[in-house]
Amino acid sequence: MKPRYSNHTKINRAGRLPRPLAGLAIALVAAALGGCNDRGDAPSARAAFVRTEVVRPKDRQASITLTGEVQPRFRADLSFRVSGRVIARYVEVGTRVKAGEVLALLDPAEQEADVDAATAAVLAAASQLRVAKATFERQKALIASGFTTRTTYDQAQEGLRTAEGALETARALLGTSKDALGYTGLRAEADGVVTARNLETGQVVQATQPVFSLAQDGGLDAVFDVYESIFLGNTDSRDVSLALVSDASATASGHVREVSPAVDARSSTVRVKVAIEDPPAAMTLGSAVAGTVKVEAQRQIALPWSALMAAGTRPAVWTVDPATRTASLKPVTVGGYEAGEVLIKAGLEPGERVVVDGGKLLSVGQPVTYEGDPS
């Protein structure tokens, strides 16, 4: 039986539509795709709302604050002038002492023995001198009478001179021995405060070995280790404002008294000493102080931290073109950082509008709007 087909749908043996119907289908598909393209045109870029500021350089009075330590202006390391064993120590660190006060004692047995020996030597030399003097007087009388020779007389005279020299030597040694006995007691050389101690009772110390450090009365210094780059700036003066780190109400003024000519090899800093004028009672030795010095005013551009971006490896900021209201990324040179602000050294001109908030999602050429935009 032969299959029958409808008059409206005729399919050839290959399973394809006749050519007129196939052309019609292609036309319909093309029209549909054309309609899709008309509706899929890319929309215009959406403007981003940002917060901006106009660049206005200002004269900024900068200051530098560093932390230092209160130290004595005059300090001495004390040591015994003779060796010996310590038998007594009378002071501790922080003890205030007077000039001449005994700080420690050594065992004086050895020095006392030296004094006894020197005393005996003086007595012996004095006895020898009396004998030599008597011999010389006798020879002097005999040579006047012609009963002795000139040689014997000269020998007696030489013996007298030798005995006199021996007595002077013995007396000098006795004086040295007595001085050494006096050196067994270590005394303060001036009024002050003991700041360090390096001996204990029973310890054997050597001569000239430092055992105490004495901060002498006569002024206080605030000592700072300053980085060398700070000296590249120009300060208003050599005056420094000082305040205790632990109590900001304890303040004093000072002036730079000494600047070390050498740079510390380990820390790359320069030691600066500031003389403290009329220090308050709370500003004692060893106190931590903050010193502030003002730097000459400079004309700088300051922007909030949020304005700083990056263009590759360089710092940059977003700027707004006033004509097209579009954003562009502009590299800048940073001159310094402060709390909440970044100082721009180069890259911006006065009058430029900079994005200070909302720039994280911007792209180059993107339209922007901002508060106060006249458009």
Textual characterization of the structure:
It is rod-shaped and about 140 Å long. It has helices at 19-39, 109-145, 150-182; strands at residues 48-54, 58-60, 63-79, 84-89, 96-97, 102-106, 185-187, 192-197, 204-205, 210-227, 239-244, 251-259, 269-277, 288-294, 298-304, 309-311, 314-320, 327-331, 333-338, 341-346, 353-357, 368-370. Strands 1, 16, 17, 18, 21 and 22 form a six-stranded mixed sheet that branches. Strands 3-10-13-12-11-14 form a six-stranded antiparallel barrel. Mean pLDDT is 84; it is low at 1-17 and 20-43. Strand 17 (314-320) and strand 18 (327-331) form a beta hairpin. It has three helices and 22 strands. The longest helix is centred in the middle third of the chain and has 37 residues, at 109-145. Helices cover 24% and strands 38% of the residues. It is α+β, with helices and mostly antiparallel strands.
Which key features would you list for this structure?
375 residues, six-stranded antiparallel barrel, alpha+beta, single chain, disordered N terminus, 22 strands, 38% strand, six-stranded mixed sheet, 3 helices, rod-shaped
The geometry reads as rod-shaped
Helix content: 10-25%
Strand content: 35-45%
β-strand number: 22
SSE series = HEEEEEEHHEEEEEEEEEEEEEEEE
Question: pLDDT average, as an integer?
Answer: 84
| Distance, first to last CA | 82 Å
Low-pLDDT regions: 1-17, 20-43
What summary fits the major beta sheet? Answer: 6 strands, mixed
Radius of gyration: 49 Å
**Structural class, from helix and strand content?**
alpha+beta
Number of contiguous helices: 3
